[in-house]
Amino acid sequence: xxxxxxxPDAAYPGKxxxxxxxxxxDPRLIALLLLLGACPAPTHAASTQVAVANPxxxxxxxxxxxxxxVPPASMQxxxxxxxxxxxxxxxxxxxxVNGDVITNNDIDNRARLFAMSTGLAMSPEILxxxxxxxxRQLIDERLRVQEAQRRKIVIQDVQIADAIHDIERRNNLPAxxxxxxxxxxxxxxxxxxxxxxxxxxxxxxxxxxxxxxxxITEADVAERLKLDSQQIGQMEYxxxxxxxPIDDPANAADAQRFAxxxxxxxxxxxxxxxxxxxxxxxxxxxxxxxxxxxxxxQLDPEVARLVTVxxxxxxxxxxxxxxxxxxxxxxxxxxxxxDIGTVVTMRQDFIPFTSPLDPQAPTExxxxxxxxxxxxxxxxxxxxxxxxxxxxxxASNRPVDPGEVRVEGVNPPAFRQLLASIPIGKATxxxxxxxxxxxxxxxxxxxxxxxxxTAKEVQRQLVGDHVEMLSRxxxxxxxxxxxxxxxSGGV
Length: 491
What we know:
By secondary structure, the protein is α+β, with helices and mostly antiparallel strands. The protein has two domains: 5-229 and 248-279 and 455-486, Orthogonal Bundle (Triger factor/SurA peptide-binding fold), CATH 1.10.4030.10; 340-449, Roll (Chitinase A, domain 3), CATH 3.10.50. It has helices at residues 32-35, 83-90, 104-118, 124-150, 157-170, 177-184, 189-213, 218-229, 252-267, 272-279, 301-307, 364-379, 383-393, 413-421, 455-481; strands at 5-6, 93-97, 100-103, 235-245, 290-294, 315-316, 319-321, 324-335, 340-352, 405-406, 431-433, 436-449, 484-486. It has a four-stranded antiparallel sheet with strand order 5-4-8-7, with helices on both faces. It is globular, with a radius of gyration of 24 Å.
């Protein structure tokens, strides 16, 4: 196979954009945040995408947990048997992992969750091509859940409730809206709850193991800083990755087909961070596949060769690497230690709508919000005054001070131009979005070297390297010791 790539196009710009907001780094939040349209555009080198993956054991149908039911009409196969036959098929055992059952219903729910999250119309044929790899992924996730349970790691219901509340709060959704969205799309709520619970458990276990086995010293950081400083002026690349493991050569063809299907959905417009969060089998999946800024000597040789010729935004074809296949997305390139950009600080007042805006028929509340925003725009002069006004108006998910924002990373372009040109201390005109109106004051604007190598970034990279090695080693051990029965009638 020759490793190639596809250049970016209008359907996939290489990164997603949205309303200015706080950066999302909480590993409890699933990539459904992308589906609901509230993720902000990245403003720093680090990732703003996070996600959760892994279902819990005991997710099989029962009297108290019936299958999600017959799939929605848009996903039914032509010539499908009557409802009773579909229900029987959904409860068919696909795999048994150390005594825990994975059913076709579990696999179908994960496939539906992925389809719902991307917002793309997926044919039953596409979803069927994904299912063999989804089954292997669910097996890995079940092994992780069992290991967390063996180590007596307990995830409390309140943690699950907090995570779901965070998803709704960050997206300005009323309580219960996410549950309604899942139900409307035929996705069992237990699928989402299971993903959150399982990933919290696995992440906690890795943190515990890191605390016991790994100690990143100041000397380690200083040595890495010294090596990095010798590379200043050379190129480095910001990458996203999707890693598809091949634990048995007999599964190589399935993995290749799965990778090609995933790439097709990426080219059709599925957000790379979301797809990585759902399907990548490395710890970077927690951050939407975000590898961050890396040098070619940190990459597999074939991947390194490829990224040097890819344009920004391009997605590679599957690349054979040790242990599996890798798909990479080139998100940026720069000289090491040199990335000059315009950075602003600001204060923002946000007046929310009580219902989504219909520009052709605004409600009375929305008209009043616009009047209030115009008053703020006309009377506020300077950041100190805006700080006071905004603290009185803003909800908790609309920070008054969003921190430093790199102008070049802001979308849409009109907003980027506004931040680059408006006089310091002058309030903007009301900026209307679907869920509310913002008025912004830019406090400072300066040129900064955002590519400067810092001890904090080096420490983050070292910890990430150790976590990934630990996770892969533990998964190899779990597979070696497990009893896994793959049922031929499944999937």
